From TrEMBL:
UniProt binding sites for Ca(2+) 1: D65, V68, G70, D72, S74, E86
Residues annotated to bind Ca(2+) 2: T189, D234, T237, D242
Pfam entry (one): peroxidase
InterPro entries cross-referenced by the UniProt entry: Haem_peroxidase, Haem_peroxidase_sf, Peroxidase_pln, Peroxidases_AS, Peroxidases_heam-ligand_BS, Secretory_peroxidase
Name of protein: Peroxidase
Cofactor notes: Binds 1 heme b (iron(II)-protoporphyrin IX) group per subunit. Binds 2 calcium ions per subunit.
Keyword Ribosomal protein: no
Active site annotation, chain numbering: H64 (proton acceptor)
Domain named Plant heme peroxidase family profile: residues: 23-311
Main localization, broad class: secreted
GO biological process: hydrogen peroxide catabolic process; response to oxidative stress
SUPFAM superfamilies tied to this protein: Heme-dependent peroxidases
Gene Ontology cellular component list: extracellular region
Length: 311
């Protein structure tokens, strides 16, 4: 094909279908909505004051958003009777924090209507929540668009007992490597898991992969009368964004099977040790991997008015 032809075809599609292409850059809203990032930060900071668990909620939401159709806020779409969206997937996530995104969106709609995408709100709010909890504050490009689809059937996230090699396959399919996978799992340094996600590790016979004292405690907690109880993923500092998670899994105190797997698998053990002994290396690596995950964008979409429904 000659270049002129490609050019004509491109413009034909562009004008015929009104395709909007995402163009990520630092400070995308600098002229169109200069206070966008500070408005989002204000909402996150206020919430964090009363609810430190918001960091974990947003991290998980961001991951589940980016790994399904790219970071396009498809995870925010509410299901309808006739059409189930990603929120209804089994992994579904018990994802939390939707109301914080709504709050930020409402403030942004008052300031600059139809300018700031829901996908960027998730990205920026997560960045801010990580920094508030003790992580590195990183600069992240913006300009994401909100996707036009959200299908329950698209959700193909790994289960909690996934093997390191199967998990790597998924990450590789998204352009991320082993080091980045181990880094991003470091997000489990905050937040909690419901017992049903690790119950299989508590039943006999004991495979020896969990510290017996922890195992006994979890057995007790998980059979409490409480309906589907939870346990902190990082048993030492559950609300601090630090490298403690790696120290804990080296002590066989990982909660999810995949968390313990990365400490035990020979392909990842050295990476875990490096992060366990060097907090600065982990924090830098985490910031870079989050930026990279945030670059998984859908290049077609809109800026939603309400994050829960398509325009
Ligand atoms: C790669 C494989 C991964 C698996 C199999 C996995 C699995 C899980 C599971 C089963 C839970 C418990 C959910 C619940 O009980 O409500 C959880 C929680 C969590 N995950 Fe992951 N995860 C993975 C990767 C990630 C990544 C890459 C991130 C972020 C960068 C992340 C962030 C979180 C956070 C912060 C929580 C706590 C959520 C809360 O407190 O509400 N996870 N994960
Ligand atoms: C997740 O899915 C279950 C059923 O699959 C549903 O009952 C629940 O409301 C969903 N959670 C959210 C947050 O949408
Ligand atoms: C078990 O429950 C108690 C009381 O809620 C809590 O303090 C403890 O941290 C839990 N243990 C584990 C391992 O989750």
């Amino acid at each position: 094909m000659n270049r002129k032809f490609v050019f004509i075809v491109f413009f034909f599609f562009f004008f015929t279908f009104q395709v909007v292409l995402a163009d990520l850059k630092i400070g995308f809203y600098k002229t169109t909505c200069p206070r966008a990032e500070s408005i989002i930060f204000g909402v996150v900071r206020r919430r964090f004051t009363t609810d430190k668990s918001i960091t974990a909620a947003l991290l998980r939401m961001h991951f589940h958003d980016c790994f399904v159709r790219g970071c396009d806020a498809s995870i925010l779409i509410d299901s309808k009777d006739e059409k189930q969206s990603e929120k209804d997937a089994g992994a579904n996530l018990t994802v939390r924090g939707f109301e914080l995104i709504d709050e930020a969106k409402q403030a942004l709609e008052e300031e600059c209507p139809l300018m700031v995408s829901c996908a960027d709100i998730i990205t920026l709010a997560t960045r801010d929540a990580v920094a508030l909890a003790g992580g590195l504050h990183y600069t992240v490009p913006t300009g994401r668009l909100d996707g036009l689809q959200s299908n329950v059937g698209d959700v193909n996230l790994p289960g909690p007992s996934v093997s390191v090699s199967d998990d790597l396959q998924l990450f590789t399919s998204k352009g991320m490597n082993l080091d980045e996978m181990v880094t991003l799992l470091g997000a489990h340094t905050v937040g909690f898991a419901h017992c049903n996600f690790f119950q299989n590790r508590l039943s006999s016979p004991d495979d020896g992969s969990m510290d017996p004292a922890l195992r006994n405690q979890l057995k007790r907690n998980c059979t409490s009368s409480n309906d589907n109880p939870t346990a902190f993923l990082d048993q030492k500092t559950a609300f601090v964004f630090d490298n403690q998670f790696y120290k804990q899994i080296k002590l066989r105190r990982g909660i999810l099977q995949i968390d313990q797997n990365i400490a035990d698998d020979e392909s990842t053990a050295a990476i875990v040790s490096r992060f366990a002994s060097n907090p600065v290396t982990f924090q830098r690596s985490f910031a870079n991997s989050m930026i990279k995950m945030g670059n998984l964008v859908a290049n077609e979409g809109e800026v939603r008015q309400n994050c829960r429904v398509f325009n």
